[in-house]
Design goal:
Number of domains: 1
Radius of gyration: 17 Å
CATH topology: Peptide Deformylase
Largest sheet: 5 strands, antiparallel
CATH class: Alpha Beta
CATH architecture: Alpha-Beta Complex
Strand order of the largest sheet: 1-2-3-6-7
Length: 200
Amino acid sequence: MAQVLPIRLYGDPVLKKKALPVQDFSSIPELAENMLETMFEARGVGLAAPQVGISQRLFVAAEYLEDEEEEGPEADLKSRVKELYVMVNPVITYRSGQQSITEGCLSLPGLYAEGARRDLQVRVEYQDEKGQQKTLEAEGYLAVVIQHEIDHLDGILFFQRMPPAERQKFLDEHREDLAEFQRQAKAFLREEAARLGQAR
């Protein structure tokens, strides 16, 4: 049964690292299932492996059906899934157009901003959880999700895609939130180190 994994917060060093290509696919189906469960629990549209502490080039994402009657956090996201994606070793091979929409991030919970520069259309080549080669053409919101998650694999967070003045404004406005995320990230890493030390 899939389990929910702890999501790493802003300030965790794993979010700044360039993730390594996946070569061994034996554990990927289980990891992808756990990541999807974690994404649903956090009510997200995408989740990259570094966000659960695994520095590998893999992310999961979902397209949801529009549901005007959804009410509150209890509404079941899984029942609204239109399409699920598991993208391993993704590479964008074509880009066109420009767009900017409001973005958030599960590693920066509750913070949203517009201004990140994104391509309107992308073609992405990737492998699925079993290692099969795939190609997907996406535009609009799904294209943003793909670019956002691939950025995570390169150690880039969405606000870093903003023009300098807008990025600085975002950092200034959310200084306290970001400092709190950093405190929580350090506390989590200390707990993990202690737990691993006890397990030895």
